[in-house]
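In keeping with the milestone schedule agreed at the kick-off meeting, the structural modelling team has produced records for the first pair of proteins. Each record is given below as a sequence line and a structure-token line. The laboratory manager (R.T.) confirmed that both were archived under the project's standard naming scheme.
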Amino acid sequence: MRPIRLGAVEYLNARPLVRGLDRQPDRFDLRFDLPARCAALLHEGRIDVGLIPTIELLGRDYRLVPGVGVVSRGQVASVALFSTKPVGAIRSIAIDRSSRTSVALLKILCVQRFGIDPAVVPLPPDLPAMIGRCDAALIIGDVALFADHEAAGARKIDLGEEWTEMTGLPFVYACWAGRPSALQESDVAALQAARDRGVRELDAVAREHSGDDEARIAAASQYLRANVQYDVGAAELAGLRRFLETASELGIAPGPATVDFYQQPGPRGAGL
């Protein structure tokens, strides 16, 4: 049998979820892309399982690896709106379209928390250029994490923090998803074990991803410890379902908000 074609996100916050998977070539054929590209490859059948933005679950018959995801419970630091104006005065937002989940989260917050209806302008993730064109900019991933917004004259509004303050729930940004027959129980166990290994080795993950810049390494390590988590339990599932249902109700993305799981290894049975 051929290895499972696995598509992962290239950002720092996804690296703990793939720890050691590159050392299992008989089981996984691993590649890295931007979040939107991971989703497109999965939809096209060019990978078997992808670490995809959660908005991509709407209208799809995918299964999730139970218990695993990229999560925030408050400030996330790497999904942010950078604004040169007070939130209520924002009339235009430049958006980084690398992840449709972040765009959908922003649209929900604009309607339900900020009370604004801004025009959106897709632009490459370059903060000075974006806020030169628009009142604010949505940027995600490593660019958002390390952006010097004060030097650019912008305020950083953390979208993970805004979601949790509005709902009282965590936010799930990405999860392992694939077609129902893509993974066996042993494959699910391998992905869960990679997550556990990555969480144990966060400092090593930060160092390997950050080159020789000690300040950047320290910031990356702090981010992995303080801002992102990788366990998806009952509260996280409630947050995920709330997000998908709201996105569907607002017409942000089509399809029913269904969440199904691969068989959970061991005696616990299926799903969560």
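The second protein of the pair:
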Amino acid sequence: MNKRTVVTSAITTAAVVAALIATPTLAAVARPSDAPEAGQPMHTSQPYAQGEGQGQGSMGQKMGQKTGDQKMDGQQAGGQQMKGQKMGGQKMGAGDGTGGGTGLTDVASGTLTDDQKTELAAMAEEEKLAHDLYVAFDEQYDATVFTRIAKSETKHLDAVRILLERYELTDPTVGLAAGEFVTDDTQALYDTLLAEGSVSLDAAMEVGRTVEETDIADLTTANEDVTAPDVLKVYERLLAASEKHLVAFGG
């Protein structure tokens, strides 16, 4: 998943420690002036544990172009109770049929440019956005597709977090509850997509397709010119998983 800036309209794992699974991509966008510099230490002792860090993907930009000027329904966007799911510090198995998994234990690290470090940090926020949306829809609708893919997105975030730790980068999702994001654009995007998907099951499936299509495009871009073996491995798995998720959502 380039630098991303998330705009108000619409928008996942590779297993690590034992396995990873794959997910999406987003268009590059400049980060806010207060975004952390690449190389800041991150805190990964517990899922959503307290810590500092900001990251911004470009999902908002592509989602905004895709969904246009649609306005969110405040009543639908608010009041959504979402089951908290721990997304970090989880040990990952060999995959659950939602995208496969590959361990990183024996995969070497490499070197990343500043832009690639920024992209990697932004990827964590993108995975969280997809995960939190699918958890919310899973609670609202009787559709197992959201249950299954939300679990996959958890593994995706875990995989990205391991890379962030390896490269000593700040995790922009740390300390945040479900549905909460460090950047205003990402928060607005989440609220908009949540509102759109809360209209009906069909609308939620459409949001899923939008998120996965955007992720596929962004991951493809993020993968360009990367030479670090472990980062390439994660991106490849995330991409493969996003393609499977898109099919599951009817894409």
